[in-house]
Design a protein that fits this description.
340 residues, alpha+beta, Phosphorylase Kinase, domain 1, Transferase(Phosphotransferase), domain 1, 7-stranded antiparallel β-sheet, two-stranded antiparallel sheet, 11 helices, 18% strand
């Protein structure tokens, strides 16, 4: 696994490692990166790191279509970070690299509590990378795994914070392009943070190379699926689809293949949340329905308008749900002695 990963990311093996507990120096030159080792002196278990430029890669956090993300240490600043390293092939495309730098620079200017901060970006050994804030309080896709739905109030709290982050990005002219539960992380205080801003170039590159729709099919906006121009309203659609999933325990559209999921949203309107979760307040149901309008012009015209309704829905969700009382048939009243 480590050797295969080295062909994807140009890491360099570490030859000596100081134990994290007793500082005993061990020779690890014969071990693959990220393999487990036990200190011979104190018995403390640890992982063999790897080097990538000025970064020390401690362990692998995940991988996706764009490359690999690591828990790393910036050795120049002595700061723990998350380091996303792109595939080698992307670094060979000069047009992509130039566009990536422009977008990463714009995203790095975004400083908001609900957006994962970008610290630096660049290339090493021909591979583009982004160094960003390390957020390890969990992620939304794990919270809703296996069809779990979140309580209405908590779901709205999370999505209100995500919308705040998207609004701040929109003010800088940034469109995220891939809003999904896996891109919503949580800080140690439970605050939601959006990750992966500044990667629109990569998304566009994949769409051109693969001749297919790029973006998570459960949440992609119809106009993006059709290859048309996207703007902040496309992110609002994806945010609405994600909120639907979190509340209902399943996305608004499904299918046997990603293509089937996309086709379903192009052929029919989004279903009502009440079909899957009848115990929701009306402001929440109406807001999600508007976010999921197929035509961008019918969605919210601004984040300000969306945030206004989202705060109102959150306040309403904290009140007891008023259910319609079932009507009972009225029976005729018989008055004694009325008949002669």
């Amino acid at each position: 696994m480590a050797d295969q990963e080295a062909t994807i990311v140009g890491t360099v093996r570490v030859e000596k490692l100081a134990c994290i507990e007793c500082q005993h120096v061990m020779d690890v030159s014969h071990l693959p990166s990220f393999s487990s080792i036990t200190c011979q002196a104190c018995g403390a278990p640890q992982t063999v790191p790897a080097k990538f430029g000025s970064f020390l890669l401690l362990n692998r956090l995940g991988a996706g279509g764009m490359g690999v993300i690591y828990h790393a240490v910036d050795r120049e600043l002595g700061r723990h970070i998350a380091l996303k390293v792109m595939k080698r092939a992307l670094g060979d495309n000069e047009e992509f690299v130039a566009s990536f730098r422009r977008e990463a620079q714009s995203a790095a200017a975004l400083n908001h509590r609900n957006v994962v901060q970008i610290y630096s970006f660049g290339q090493f050994a021909g591979q583009p990378y982004i160094a960003m804030e390390l957020v390890d309080g969990g992620q939304l896709d794990v919270m809703i795994a296996n069809g779990r739905a979140l309580p209405e109030t908590r779901a709205l709290e999370i999505h209100l914070e995500v919308a705040e982050g998207l609004n701040a990005a929109s003010e800088l002219g940034l469109v995220h392009g891939d809003i999904k539960p896996a891109n919503v992380l949580f800080g140690l205080n439970g605050e939601a943070k959006v990750v992966d801003f500044g990667l629109a170039s990569f998304i566009g590159q994949q769409q051109q190379q693969g001749q297919q729709v790029w973006g998570t099919p459960y949440y992609i906006a119809p106009e993006k699926a059709r290859g048309k121009k996207v703007d902040f309203r496309s992110d609002i659609y994806s945010l609405g689809a994600m909120l639907f999933h979190v509340l209902a325990g399943q996305p608004p559209f499904d299918g046997a293949t990603p293509a089937d999921v996309v086709v379903a949203r192009l052929r029919q309107p989004a279903p009502s949340l009440l079909q899957y979760q009848p115990d929701l307040h009306q402001p929440t149901v109406a807001m999600v329905a508007r976010m999921l309008q197929a035509e961008p012009a019918l969605r919210y015209p601004s984040y300000a308008a969306l945030l206004l309704d989202m705060r109102a829905a959150l306040a309403a969700s904290r009140a007891p749900l008023k259910k319609a009382k079932a009507k009972t048939a009225r029976l005729p009243t018989i008055v004694a002695g009325a008949a002669h």
